């Protein structure tokens, strides 16, 4: 007998609601459910990914049973084992490695959106390892850190038609990165009379509907933000009442931005000075203005933290903070926070002291977090510690390669593919090939899975419940239940890490038997019943405005959770870690030696700036390349230049090109696009799932993987951010056919 079950998609962060028809424990049909978040069936109607959910349940390429390597690493020889056999052996090997080297010998890597981060983080804390290797340094962490140290917590854009009078979209293109509710809200905003400004080197879909497009030179975003501040202060467009009452260090900032005249900024950023002035006036003269930044800003290396700081100052001096239609401070969650779920406080001081990041990234480490924690806790909120202390890949790889400062000999990979998504693929590959234990939990036999000791089958969309809370920095969660039990022998990540934990003495820390039970316990504190949540699809409490004016325990306004109690235009905190009081642009590090450039130019190649990581629907990072319909529409990896650049270089659409740095090279098909001249943008995450896994080609990851060119060497000194969007390369035409042709 057929039943209709509520469930959710997992193919992007929105986790859209479905109704699943279930017969005998199998899903036979899916349909959008507009009665639950995000409440708009047009979103799924315009999405190509959600239809994958049904096909992927029985996909021929899914990993369905625990697999153990029996041949050489990467040899693609496996034996099927039971879950008990796999978990018993993994636990025993981890115990032995910890006894020999200490628990810090274990590192982890995690991705999304088809995973819950906190179960792995909890396991790592209780095991005693601080080494969750992440790429948060180039995604999310920089903004969260700089928002928190400037405002006392994170801010989100409150885009309200009729209230928001100006909107800046900086370094993100939701038409491609999510193609969902936010993109629809931007289209609606673009149809209004309020100005929309897009800052992006490429003429994205957002830029195409914007009133003003600023194609900034990659890596100069901080200079541009300081230029906006110069215009606003010079023309006295400052909200003096707000600044005088609630901002610290305005006079210092005003002096600091004096050199950033429109003419100077225009020369640095490659923009018309008049457009810089116009944009600054639009933002400052609006009654309410909002600004949204994305990975384009998060991935500009040494300039990431100062750019976010300058953007924070831009919001503050115009009074666009915590007011309707502006940039609103989020609320802390009513439900159990990510920080508590991680059980980070259970990580002993001696293990915190072994954090690889100290002293290389003094903010993104346990010591930096411990110093910042009392600030946010002034107003009863705590940031998620494991995210904001995640071990820097460069330092984890060094510990794998050299054993310094101690050996990292084991890695657990959950729902990510480091051989495609981490910088410097050659280095990542060599480091992982030398491990004593590599465990991968995933849907498919990815290049990373193909070199593992164990590949464990992950339960995916429809098979697992979801509660998406975006790190627990807002009072919002959405998702719903599983429609069916996991097919075959797949398991939720929670079950895997609970199973390992129970084998390694963590019994008391895993009281809930299932992930749904854990989610129910998480929501209970907020007075939300799990079954009710599953019917509604969302828990959300709208934020209050002007929270800094609310009375504190002493009856006076509570202010902001910073050192001074005000928005810190000039930081009092960062100098305690050796950082600057004010945002300062930094020099970009070249990945092309003079010898490489000279040799390439002698062979007819050209030296150009490079950006990577631009999302392209329906792909997302290294995901969904195994979908035949997607590949039919976007069959090959692309390098884009402007028409003028192609003409100058003697290239035409369809030409084969090679892009290279000192680290390596990758090959693409050339296309032209509307974008800055003398710039190349290449597709990200490309591999060939249809190729044989393992050696020698490893799913084609050497062919067109831009991370063969990149480097994860720390660029920004506080957080350690490296660059994906402001690096240089050499580009040359290739005559011989490419390997996939």
Give the SSE map.
Layout: E1 3-8, E2 17-23, E3 26-32, H1 41-45, H2 52-57, E4 67-69, E5 78-80, H3 83-101, E6 106-110, H4 117-127, E7 132-133, H5 141-151, E8 155-157, E9 166-170, H6 174-177, H7 181-190, E10 196-199, H8 205-209, E11 212-214, H9 221-234, H10 240-246, E12 247-248, H11 250-256, H12 262-269, H13 273-285, E13 289-293, H14 295-298, H15 304-317, E14 327-329, H16 338-342, H17 349-352, H18 366-376, H19 385-388, H20 393-402, E15 410-414, H21 418-421, H22 425-433, E16 437-442, E17 454-457, E18 466-468, E19 476-480, H23 493-503, H24 515-524, H25 530-536, E20 538-540, E21 567-568, H26 594-602, E22 606-611, H27 628-633, E23 638-641, H28 643-649, E24 656-660, E25 665-672, E26 680-682, E27 727-734
Parallel strand pairs: 6-7, 6-15, 9-10, 9-13, 10-11, 12-21, 15-16, 16-17, 22-26, 23-25
Antiparallel strand pairs: 1-2, 2-3, 4-5, 4-17, 8-14, 18-19, 19-20, 22-27, 23-26, 24-25, 24-27
Explain what the structure shows.
The chain is an alpha/beta fold. It folds into three domains: 284 residues, Rossmann fold (3-Layer(aba) Sandwich); 175 residues, Dimethylsulfoxide Reductase, domain 2, CATH 3.40.228; 140 residues, Barwin-like endoglucanases. The protein contains 28 helices and 27 strands. Strands 5-4-17-16-15-6-7 form a seven-stranded mixed sheet. Strands 22-26-23-25-24-27 form a six-stranded mixed β-barrel. Helix 3 crosses helix 23, helix 9 runs antiparallel to helix 12 and helix 9 packs across helix 13. The chain is globular and about 70 Å long. The relative contact order is 0.15. The mean pLDDT is 95.
């Amino acid at each position: 007998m057929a039943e209709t079950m509520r469930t959710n998609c997992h193919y992007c962060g929105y986790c859209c609601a479905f109704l699943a028809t279930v017969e005998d424990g199998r899903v036979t049909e899916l349909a959008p459910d507009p009665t639950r978040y995000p409440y708009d069936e047009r979103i799924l109607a315009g999405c190509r990914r959600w239809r994958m959910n049904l096909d992927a349940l029985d996909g021929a390429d899914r990993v369905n049973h625990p697999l153990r390597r029996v041949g050489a690493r990467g040899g693609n020889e496996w034996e099927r084992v039971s879950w008990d056999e796999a978990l018993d052996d993994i636990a025993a090997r981890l115990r032995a490695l910890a006894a020999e080297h200490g628990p810090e010998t274990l590192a982890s890597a995690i991705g999304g959106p088809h995973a819950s981060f906190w179960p792995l983080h909890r396991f790592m804390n209780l095991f005693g390892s601080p080494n969750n290797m992440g790429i948060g340094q180039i995604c999310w962490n920089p903004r969260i850190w700089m928002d928190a140290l400037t405002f006392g917590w994170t801010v989100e854009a409150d885009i309200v038609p009729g209230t928001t009078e100006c909107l800046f979209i900086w370094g993100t293109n939701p038409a491609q990165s999510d193609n969902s509710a936010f993109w629809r809200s931007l289209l609606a905003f673009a149809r209004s009379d309020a100005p929309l400004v897009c800052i992006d080197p490429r003429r994205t879909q957002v830029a195409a509907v914007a009133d003003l497009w600023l194609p900034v030179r990659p890596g100069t975003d901080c200079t541009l933000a300081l230029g906006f501040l110069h215009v606003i202060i010079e023309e006295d467009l400052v909200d003096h009442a707000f600044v005088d009452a609630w901002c610290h260090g305005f006079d210092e900032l005003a002096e600091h931005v004096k050199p950033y005249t429109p003419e100077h900024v225009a020369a640095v950023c490659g923009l018309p000075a008049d457009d810089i002035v116009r944009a600054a006036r639009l933002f400052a003269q609006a009654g309410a203005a909002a600004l949204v930044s994305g990975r384009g800003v998060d991935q500009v290396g040494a300039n990431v933290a100062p750019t976010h700081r300058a953007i924070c100052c831009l919001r503050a001096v115009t009074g666009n903070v915590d007011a309707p239609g502006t940039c609103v401070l989020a609320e802390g969650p009513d439900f159990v926070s990510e920080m508590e779920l991680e059980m980070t406080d259970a990580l002993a001081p001696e293990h915190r002291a072994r954090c690889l990041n100290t002293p290389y990234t003094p903010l993104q480490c346990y010591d930096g977090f411990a110093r910042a924690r009392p600030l946010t806790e002034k107003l009863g909120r705590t940031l998620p510690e494991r995210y904001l202390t995640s071990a820097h890949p460069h330092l984890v790889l060094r510990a794998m390669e050299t054993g310094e400062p101690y050996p990292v000999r084991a890695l657990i990979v959950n729902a990510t593919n480091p051989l495609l998504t981490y910088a410097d693929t050659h280095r990542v590959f060599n480091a992982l090939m030398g491990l004593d234990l590599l465990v991968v939990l995933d849907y498919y036999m990815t290049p990373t899975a193909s070199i593992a000791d164990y590949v464990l089958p992950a339960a995916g969309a429809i098979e697992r419940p979801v509660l998406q809370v975006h790190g627990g920095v807002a009072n919002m969660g959405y998702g719903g239940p599983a429609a069916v039990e996991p097919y075959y022998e797949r398991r939720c990540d929670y079950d895997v890490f609970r199973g390992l934990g129970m084998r390694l003495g963590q019994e008391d820390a895993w009281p809930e038997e299932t992930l749904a039970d854990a989610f129910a316990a998480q929501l209970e504190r907020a007075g939300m019943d799990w079954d009710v949540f599953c019917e509604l699809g969302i828990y959300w409490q709208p934020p209050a405005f002007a929270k800094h004016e609310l009375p504190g325990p002493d009856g006076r306004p509570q202010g902001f959770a910073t050192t001074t109690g005000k928005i810190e235009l000039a930081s009092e905190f960062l100098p305690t870690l050796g950082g600057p009081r004010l945002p300062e642009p930094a020099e970009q590090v070249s990945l092309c030696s003079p010898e490489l450039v000279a040799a390439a130019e002698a062979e007819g190649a050209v030296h150009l700036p490079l950006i990577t990581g631009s999302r392209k629907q329906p792909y997302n990072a290294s995901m969904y390349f195994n979908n035949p319909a997607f590949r039919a529409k976007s069959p090959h990896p692309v390098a884009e230049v402007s028409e003028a650049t192609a003409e100058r270089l003697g290239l035409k659409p369809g030409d084969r090109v090679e892009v290279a740095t000192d680290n390596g090279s990758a090959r693409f098909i050339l296309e032209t696009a509307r974008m800055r001249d003398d710039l190349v943008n290449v597709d990200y995450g490309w591999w060939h799932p249809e190729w044989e896994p393992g050696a020698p080609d490893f799913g084609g990851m050497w062919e067109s993987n831009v991370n063969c060119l990149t480097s994860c060497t720390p660029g920004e000194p506080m957080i350690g951010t490296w660059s994906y969007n402001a690096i240089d390369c050499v580009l040359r035409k290739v005559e011989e056919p490419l390997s996939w042709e």
